[in-house]
Amino acid sequence: MKNIDVPIVVEETYMTTPKNVWKAITELDQMKKWFFEQIESFEAKEGFETQFVVEVENRKFTHLWKITEVIPYQKIKYGWRYKEYSGDSFVTFELFKNENHVKLRLITEIIHSFPSDIPEFARESCIGGWEYFIKSSLKEYLMSKK
Description:
The chain has three helices and six strands. The chain is α+β, with helices and mostly antiparallel strands. Helix content is 26%, strand content 39%.
């Protein structure tokens, strides 16, 4: 993922309320069920920082997140980088209420390029990961709560 790349955008519609989607993307116990079970702490407030480790094969990825913007039930944005690797990005979750459903738009903006020799940092890998989380894992999680 390079800083010259256009942002990655993944959208999905959920047949639920903005409150339910907001809770799923901002409350630790719910995030652990559809996102990363390794998350140890999370608060939807500007300035909050957290870190957690995900291991893939023999590679360690210490996720470093810092919340930069919060508009309850509408938007949360955070810096996303890794302790072991160069690169920096912003991830934004935006919610749009319609009559009987909610659209979520996920945007990943690369601020500083990530290493090109790490498979997880390939643009296709990032797109595939977000499509899995937003279109499959989160969608299934929200449907299971009905």
